[in-house]
Design goal:
The structure holds two protein chains of two kinds. Chain A is of the alpha+beta class. Chain A has two domains: about 1-170, Uridine Diphospho-n-acetylenolpyruvylglucosamine Reductase, domain 3 (2-Layer Sandwich); about 175-280, 2-Layer Sandwich (Enolase-like, domain 1). Chain A has helices spanning about 10-20, 30-40, 75-80, 80-85, 90-95, 100-105, 110-115, 120-125, 225-230, 240-255, 260-280, and strands at about 1-5, 25, 45-50, 60, 65-70, 130-135, 140-145, 150, 155, 160-170, 175-180, 195-200, 205-215. A five-stranded antiparallel beta sheet of chain A has the order 4-5-10-6-7. In chain A, helix 9 packs antiparallel against helix 10 (about 240-255) and helix 10 packs antiparallel against helix 11. Chain B is an alpha+beta fold. Chain B folds into three domains: about 20-120 and about 185-260, Aldehyde oxidase/xanthine dehydrogenase, a/b hammerhead (Aldehyde Oxidoreductase, domain 3), CATH 3.90.1170.50; about 280-385 and about 400-445 and about 605-755, 2-Layer Sandwich (Aldehyde Oxidoreductase, domain 4), CATH 3.30.365.10; about 455-595, 2-Layer Sandwich (Aldehyde Oxidoreductase, domain 4). Chain B has 22 helices and 30 strands. The longest helix of chain B is centred in the last third of the chain and has 28 residues, at about 520-545. At the A-B interface, helix 2 and helix 11 of A face strand 18, helix 21 and helix 22 of B.
């Protein structure tokens, strides 16, 4: 097995060219190394480490757009003043991933390319209407994060392509957001269900531009337009949020049918939609989270 | 007391914090080979043939062994049925059909893949109640019933007739993994005289010694077991670790070379035994005043593929099945059954956590039914000094149960919070507060299970430094420190004079296993006697020095004084000086001590007798916040009160309590070893969840001391008591918060929200789903 640490994006593309299908990208390794324990990498694998690739390590704003390099770690995002200010739900999501050790290794690009249905950064990115920037031998392209996934664990990424960055429009300071994660313990927990919401609220307390992205709920990542449409121009109150929760739960059953986990997920998805909306709207009255 | 009870640093601390401590896998030798195992491919199948030719032909492979290559006894364990290498059949998926020794780990793994086994698959059974049915597939020739323990006291029919009402519930508890941080490992090598040495992570190395010598067909004297520093065990490194060490030893014998065998975490979880899952049918006859007229219990434990400790684990459950409560009429039937799951055996608690969960839940329910507080009902029914247990044993020591309950309640403001949490104010919030109480009593040490004796050796070197050896081992619980403090107390010396030697099968007489919270009471008892025996030699010399034939002496602060009444008289000499005098007179200061207690008896038919020579008592209070919309339970505070007889080292007692609470909490709300059709689904810590540092609550440890006549300086036990009543305190707190009774452990998201577990029928979400066929 070969191991090479790419210095820059050009390095990566050159190796795609010379090594072809042998190349296995490794960003933080928090998934690759765990999987290799169960199914070893091929003998001739070329492990290409992009965690230190200079042009994939930036967090910056260009006009009204935030750009995050694919190799930025979860911990860096959780601590970034820019992200905490302009996309607080993404910082919150990153802060709850794994443990500090995992957050120090794991990267944003790795998390979305692994494409696990319970990835914690995907719901915030969906709610942020983020774009995924892809570099490849055939040139660059940009796709909305909502169109980046085929099925669980299968991002729409061709051979010879690498995610270079993610970008999204800065949220206005008045925009309401929330991220909620339900795990089986307080750290090192894979999300049982997670939830991201973004909306604007008028002075009279009406909802606008609602974006609702649940995780671990649908087989493929997407927002819930039925609930979003329902919430548009509705008053921000618990009874409305409760209704939205039911719509999301109904949608889950409509898509996936009734499965082994449905008796649990149906009420809990509904409750967490309601709760996450309530937190964002500042009307959540539950105990400490 | 000079040193007993002090917060002395652990004698093994330096090696642990500097990294100098050597765990089993840290031992390596030149020319060492590496071993790997061929696993069973069916949970229940007849082994028709094993073809090892291709594996053996692989360059770099030095030996491939199957059951027929074992020169001695291939079977060991309490039931004599655990196979070092599966011979006639495979009975669970952790069975090993063949082992390989090769020049590298990679080669050994490659060779394993070349071994071809032909099986005839047999019908399997995975549920203990199904296993006990007449038409169930037989896993062993004698049938699937491992044991049936009975206890009969009074007349339950009459007791139920006298009751005002009956409480009945079916409880279930889950299998859990010990989760010791260090997986099993051993290095086996030939010695210079036709024998073998095994260095291993072995909890009960005397038991391992016998099994390994029998497998190699060698006398015990030719097989030396050295116990390496252990990274945890919790009861788990008995048969599982013996299997691994025996396989390494067999390969060393075959090849004449050192052989290292190391379990990966997945190997460890796949092969090792777990805590017994129980199904418990409890029925209590109760009066409106909160008293109990009768108790009937039928419980079935899943013993898995082999007998292991099932008979003893379930026996403890029988003895303690009524809890520390007066009950005149008792009928208990406890069964353990073979299944094709991982076998189940010893784990911290050993049959008590299962019954305690049910008993303490029922006691809460009783309080609810009669409109009293759970504390009041426990104080009404609880044992006192002189009480008679369900086995007919009179408790003649200080029974501190009620003291423990009151301490726990007052430290936590239990009564006030319990009442407040029941108000509607708490119920209007989706996240509700709850508080729960539990208590238990526990028989100390082995009891009527078997011979209870332990040995220790104290050797004062000519320069006054001291070596202590013991047959009781330290697996992280601090036994070496406790025994050192006891020796130092007897000799009136500082702890820094002492050095504890690694246990070795040739060093100290067979002391039985380090189990049953017997380390301090039995090992410490032996160390005290050994130190007293050495001191007696010193006293003989002192009498000559002082020319006072009747004199008694006081050993204190490294000096020896004449005893004057009960006080301190004239100084005689320094410790070193007396040691030098002894050696000058040809009196080496070397002595062993044996602590043997044989004051138990038992009638198998009626379940009556003095089951244990003494008991300990404790009480726990848990505070929780329950998210009633998700079922998430957050344990926020925990109060743990234990009467330990005497705390030899307060910090270590607290450490045991904190660890016990964390582990008991994992049992209560999180941990579950899941098998589907015999296949382990939680093979590593990414899927087998144990509490993290963030999950562990604020904990308050409260130590009660009522010195016991049987213990060294009055010390009894803490290891298992610390864990055994934590889960029901949490379950009762959940009831206080939600009004929902938890009947099945663990109280995870689904259980709390729906009152049942949900079982995945599709592949799991994480790694296996991704890399497996989609």
């Amino acid at each position: 097995m070969h191991y090479y640490r790419a210095k820059n994006l050009k390095d990566i593309l050159n190796l795609f060219e010379s090594e072809g299908d042998r190349v296995h990208l490794i960003a933080g390794g928090t998934d690759v190394l765990v999987e290799a324990r169960q199914k070893p990498l091929p003998q001739d694998a070329f492990l290409l480490d992009i965690s230190q690739t200079a042009d994939l390590r930036h967090i910056n704003e260009q006009g009204q757009t935030i750009h995050i390099g694919a190799s930025v770690t979860h911990q860096e995002l959780a601590e970034s003043a820019l992200i905490r200010q302009s996309a607080p739900l993404l910082a919150q999501a990153c802060r709850q991933i794994g443990s500090l050790q995992i957050r120090n290794r794991g990267t944003l690009g790795g998390n979305i390319c692994n494409a696990s249905p319970c990835a914690d950064t995907v719901p915030p990115l969906l709610a942020l209407n983020a774009n995924v920037h892809i570099a490849g031998l055939q040139g660059k392209r940009t796709v909305p994060v909502a169109e980046f996934f085929d099925s669980p664990y299968h991002p729409l990424l061709n051979n010879g392509e690498v995610v270079s960055a993610v970008s999204f429009a800065k949220l206005e300071p008045t925009t309401r957001t929330a991220f909620y994660k339900l795990g089986r313990r307080k750290a090192l927990a894979i999300s049982r269900i997670n939830m991201a919401v973004v909306f604007k609220m008028t002075e009279e307390g009406f909802l606008e531009d609602v974006r609702l992205a649940p995780g671990s709920v649908f087989p493929a990542w997407h927002r819930v337009s039925e609930a979003e449409t329902f919430l548009e121009n509705k008053k921000a109150q618990l009874s409305v949020f409760e209704e939205a929760g039911k719509l999301v739960a109904d949608k889950m059953i409509a898509i996936s049918g009734r499965r082994w986990s449905t008796p649990y997920k149906e009420p809990v998805v509904a409750a967490l939609v309601k709760r996450t909306l309530a937190i964002a709207a500042g009307v959540y009255k539950g105990g400490k989270l | 007391m000079n040193i007993i009870g002090k917060r002395e640093p652990r004698v093994d601390a330096l090696g642990k914090v500097t990294g100098a401590a050597k765990f089993a896998d840290d031992y390596n030798m030149p020319h060492q080979l590496y071993a790997a195992v061929k696993y069973a491919e069916f949970p229940h199948a007849e082994i028709v043939s094993v073809d090892t030719a291709k594996a053996a032909a692989l360059s770099g492979v030095q030996a491939v062994l199957t059951a027929k290559d074992v020169p001695g006894s291939n079977r060991f364990g309490l039931g004599g049925d655990i196979r070092i290498l599966a011979d006639d059949r495979t009975r669970y998926l952790g069975d090993v059909v063949a082992v390989v020794a090769a020049e590298s780990r990679a080669l050994a793994a490659q060779a394993i893949d070349l071994i071809e086994v032909t099986y005839k698959e047999l019908p399997a059974v995975f549920h203990p109640e199904e296993a006990l049915k007449e038409d169930a597939p037989k896993i062993h020739e004698q049938g699937n019933e491992i044991v049936h323990h009975k206890l009969r006291r009074g007349n339950v029919e009459q007791g139920f007739a006298e009751a005002d009402f009956i409480l009945e519930h079916r409880f279930t508890t889950q299998a859990i993994e010990h989760s010791y941080i260090e997986p099993e490992a051993a290095l086996a090598y030939p010695d210079e005289q036709d024998g073998f040495v095994v260095i291993g992570s072995l909890q009960n190395f005397y038991t391992s010694h016998k099994a390994i010598a029998a497998a190699l067909d060698l006398p015990l004297s030719k097989v030396q077991i050295i116990q390496s520093t252990m990274g945890g065990s919790f009861g788990g490194k008995d048969e599982s670790a013996t299997m691994l060490a025996a396989r390494a030893a067999l390969l060393a014998q075959k090849t004449g070379r050192p052989v290292k065998m190391l379990n990966s975490r997945e190997d460890s979880i796949r092969q090792s035994y777990k805590r017994h899952p129980y199904i418990l049918y409890y029925k209590w006859g109760c009066r409106y005043d909160g008293s109990i007229t009768a108790m009937e219990l039928k419980a079935i434990a899943d013993g898995g593929a082999y007998v292991s400790m099932s008979p003893f684990v379930t026996w403890r459950s029988v003895v303690q099945a009524t809890g520390p409560y007066h009950c005149p009429n008792v009928k208990t039937d406890l069964y353990a059954a073979f299944t094709n799951n991982n076998f189940t055996g010893a784990m911290r608690g050993f049959g008590s956590p299962q019954v305690n969960f049910a008993i303490e839940s029922m006691m809460d329910e009783l309080a609810e039914q009669v409109g009293k507080s759970p504390l009041a009902v426990r104080l009404l029914n609880g044992f006192e000094t002189g009480s008679v247990t369900a086995t007919g044993q009179r408790l003649n020591h200080e029974v501190s149960l009620k003291h423990a309950l009151l301490e726990a309640a007052s430290a936590s403001y239990y009564g006030k919070k319990w009442a407040e949490n029941r108000l509607t104010k708490n119920k209007s919030n989706p996240i509700r507060k709850g508080i729960g109480i539990s208590c238990a009593y526990r028989g100390v040490s082995l009891g009527a299970e078997g011979v209870d004796a332990a040995s220790a050796v104290v050797y004062i070197q000519p320069d006054g430094s001291v070596n202590v050896s013991s047959g009781i081992i330290d697996m992280g619980q601090g036994a070496q420190t406790a025994m050192s403090q006891i020796v130092a107390e007897v000799l009136g010396i500082n702890l820094n004079r002492l050095r504890f030697l690694q246990p070795d099968s040739g060093r100290v007489a067979d002391s039985g296993p380090t189990v049953a919270s017997r380390g301090t009471i039995m090992g410490g008892g032996a160390a005290k006697i050994a130190a007293e025996n050495v001191r007696a030699v010193m006293e003989k010399t002192l009498r000559e020095m002082t020319e006072q034939e009747q004199a008694d002496f006081l050993f204190e602060n490294e000096e020896i004084f004449l005893k004057k009444g009960n006080g301190k008289g004239k100084r005689v000499a320094g410790f070193d000086e007396v040691v030098a005098r002894c050696y000058a007179k040809g009196r080496p200061l070397f002595a062993s001590g044996v602590r043997h207690i044989a004051e138990t008896n038992w009638d198998e038919e009626t379940g009556q007798g003095d089951a244990y020579f003494t008991y300990v008592y404790g009480a726990n209070v848990a505070e929780v916040e329950v998210d009633t919309e998700t079922g998430r339970v957050d344990v926020t505070k925990f109060y743990s009160v234990h009467d330990v007889g005497r705390a030899i080292n307060r910090s270590m007692v607290e450490g045991q309590i904190y660890g016990g609470v964390a582990m008991g909490m994992g049992y209560g709300i999180m941990e579950e070893f899941i098998q589907e059709e015999g296949q382990a689904k939680t093979l590593n810590f990414d899927e087998y969840y144990i509490p993290t540092a963030l999950d562990v609550p604020y904990m308050k440890a409260i130590i009660l001391e009522n010195p016991d006549a049987k213990g060294p300086f009055g010390a009894k036990s803490i290891g298992e008591p610390a864990l055994e009543m934590a889960a029901p305190a949490i379950a009762n707190a959940i009831f206080n918060a939600t009004g929902k009774r938890i009947l099945n452990l663990p109280a995870n998201l689904e259980e709390v929200l729906l009152g049942k577990k949900l079982r995945r029928k599709t592949p799991r979400a994480s790694v296996s789903c991704k890399i497996g066929p989609l």
